[in-house]
User: What shape does this take?
Amino acid sequence: MMLISFTIALLAAKDGLCANIPLRRRQMPYQFSPDPASGLDDPTVQIADASFGTAIAAGYQGPSASSQNPALVGPVDLLRSGRVNHGLKPNYTMPLYYGMSASNASYWWIATDTSDKGNAKQLGLNYAPKLRFAAQSMDAQGMKAAEQLELVNNNIYGRRGMVDFSPVRNTVAGNSTPFPPAIAEPGSRGDAEYTPLVQLTNAGNEVWNAPIIAGDLTEEYLNQFCDGVPTDRAEDFYSKVHDQVLAICPRDQVVTFATVRGFSFGKSLLYIVPDSSDVLPAAIDGGTYAPRLGAVRTGQDDALFSAVERIFVSTNGYTNRDLPSGAPNNEIHHPWRQGLDSAVLGEGNPLNVFGAIPTVAFDYSPLGISSFGLGRSIQSEMASGNV
Assistant: This one.
């Protein structure tokens, strides 16, 4: 089993209809909020419409039961600071923040989780009490996983660690098996002092997940991408901005991030991966390689003072290449597609399984520890009735 710590931000857990969620801030252009009826990009995670099997149109349906009780059927908006845009390629539009580093370089960042329960509720962030324990994690050189900083004039001041967005993300499948890949190069790299975790020493010593998603760029430059990133400008843009940013607009104070699909306790969910402590998930998921996150102690999950939560990852699950010829309806997607082999081949998200998410369990943390397993052998055992 291989253990890797990386930051995530849970967005939405769904059991049923992909409902539109009221926008609490200015919305990005319509192209980032496609019609939910347009379908999903992967048949392995399709969700039935509320009108399925009836003669009543979807627009006539009442509110989902989850709007009254998040444990019931329907979508649940977990990260409530922005909007989940459902459709062919789901994404998330959230508030964008401006910061100034200790070296007086500007940067742009987002906030997703905090150990501060009151402010998590007020700001619509994920409440993650386990983050408090990340602040005490320390590597052999005495570097802590969270940077201790102060608020000055309503903003975080003095971050020392920065991110280089100039590398080109590149993942090439391995020779004998797709995973591990022959080449895995993240599209952005944090320096030795960079961490997305900040502990505010003059604001209750609470810990916040605050990833940097763009470097020293002017508002004028970034405002050119309020409506998305044109193909002919993508190379220049992604040499300066996080690879998962689909649009960024300081004028409207918002940024749109690509999402990743996953599951937890039978519920499908969407999440984002801003950072990772290892180059492999950073390259595969498109996050920033942040080695300082490696200071977080792993292997104890829900033990006393643990800052982490498990994520279960299949390495050798079925890929679309395993689909037999002459499949019904000329199907090209394997119905059991899942895992890192498939992800490295570019077939879609690995469809990881989370140990805990808000509303389902109390031990959620944005610091996920990947437990790698052999998905296909497990499926074969289950099919033979031996498990």
